[in-house]
Amino acid sequence: MTGVSVGVDVGGTFTDLAAVGDDGSVIALKVSSTPGDQSEAVECALRRLPDGAAPVHGIVHGTTVVTNMLLERTGARVVLCATAGATDLLELRRQERASLYDLSVHHPPPLVPHERVVGVAERIAPEGVVVALGDDEVDRVVARVIELGAEVVAVSLLHAYADASHERRLAGALSAALDARGSRCEVVCSADVLPEIREYERTATTVCEAYVRPGVGRYVAHLAARLEAAGLPAPSVMSSSGGTAPAAEAAQHGASLALSGPAGGVAGAAFIARALGIDRALTIDIGGTSADVGLVLGGAPLLETGGAVAGVPIALPRVLVETVSAGGGSIAWVDDGGALRVGPRSAGARPGPVAFRRGGTQPTVTDAHVALGNIAATVMSDGVDLDIGGAIVAVDTLAARLGADRRATAEAIVAIADAAMARALRRVSVERGIDPRECALIAFGGGGPLHACGLADRLGIRRIVVPPHAGVLSALGLAIAPRRRLAAASVMQRVEAIDAAALAALATGLAERVSSVRDGVDDAARPTVEWSARTRYVGQGHELDVPFEPATGPERLAEGFAQKHRERYGFVLDRPVEVVSARCTVSTGARELQLARRGPSSWSDAARRDDGGQLDVAVRGRTTVTLADATLLVAEGWDARALPIGGWLVERAP
Questions:
Q1: Can the peptide bond before residue 363 be classed as cis, meaning omega within 30 degrees of 0?
Q2: pTM for the whole structure
Q3: Of 227, 266, 421, 589, which one is least surrounded by beta carbons within 10 A?
Q4: Are strands 4-10 and 56-62 parallel, antiparallel or unpaired?
Q5: pLDDT tens per residue across span 610-624
Q6: Final residue before a domain boundary, out of 381, 402, 419
């Protein structure tokens, strides 16, 4: 099949596009983001594909719509139905402080205020139904929900992960009553969103899904209509777990899109790591508003369950990504104590850094680099003509407030940003038992190659990879990402109580629920089916994901858990092991398969030219290399050479 697979990643400053052809060629470009309507920039990027390019076969989109809704609190009006006596879960959280030593810091308010939580007189316990859900109670709850004027109803009843009968009955009654009133209000059940233990996380995730689902649905429908009008195919959307799904399907799993764009970047970095034979790598994606860090182990992104976005817990599988407010547009300012600060405020796409000539007046990290001469190009992506003089004046004005000179101020701005990003890199590595000195650093995004040497120096890393098409690697990761579906089921049994037949039946049943995944790009591609069990010691407060096969005996689960536990924590315990839940993931990634078959060299001489050099190019010492969509700064004490696939390998000088 002839055509290009396109990835489009929306960032705070630029929207990136990468189109991957059947021959492995890559077309990359950037346009300015349109914060008021992200779909406008998506369409603009697609319209800028060269006239001679092959027809667009598929579009994968990485969006910040969910993140923005959670940050700005612009989601739907949700009413939560919870078991009576457990209606305060969202306020109680885990009873941990927002900041251990600062009592003035508070958690953000829950997405559903207490007055919109309806207590339901019912209770299911591990031993069975304790309080039955009567007809009168169902009628009362339905009437109260209607009275509260819900746009979406979230139903999260105690222990519904083990027995969802009460949730199903209440949801059915709510749907029937709302439909009879002509309401388009959806009902979201926790048993469908997260059928796992931990009442707070299950409830918070279900509420998040209900809160963002209408907004995601409107956005993807608007985007699909815009693309259809332009004669383009319907889009797919990247999920936080690193897989894609058709837009209409993704709209029914809005909470899983919270890390849509950053997941694409780590997926792209993992592909580069595999192409170069790198087993362990830290990733840093520096954009205009923030920096996203991740971890690649065994050539694959590290997947974890849990985490929070904008203070909202989302206990769903996700590519490990930690975001810090340090990007090219992060504003440098002086606090009340006279100290220099950088971020979290950002100049964003509009007005942007002073150097972008879009009305910005406050110095940013990008302006500091311009003042230091670290950015040699005068014309940036999307035709941005740099105002070098304006950037210098902005930095000089800040320097005067600090009583320092221009260079010292600009270097301090960059160092503060580096320190914030280095802390994030340590958190994703050291806290998981990974020594960053044993990892390569894959640096991408518009600012990643600029900061790579400074970050590597702080972490003791001796090898940096600047991939081909570094400025749009997140979009490239989207373009080659697999289509993926996931099913989960609660287990809650000790390993010795699970027999081999039951484990095989569980695995088969999960696979049947997600067996319809087909990419359609390459008939030779076959879906990959993977199973994992969330496993822990009895009484332990956290789990580890242990891969297994249907034919795996339960004893192999315990062995696999012990091995994982030793790798992660350095020890094992003489305690029983239990399985909390099981998951099945089915994915198909034909476009990545095509690239892998042809090999990285299929990115051609054009990729090398785009990334600033030919095969025999090598530089030493402090040098600025202008790339097609980014800038590489080779610091003192570092050597760099062009890679055969495009991009650069930067190593500590001997």
A1: no
A2: 0.88
A3: 227
A4: parallel
A5: 454 445 578 888 899
A6: 419
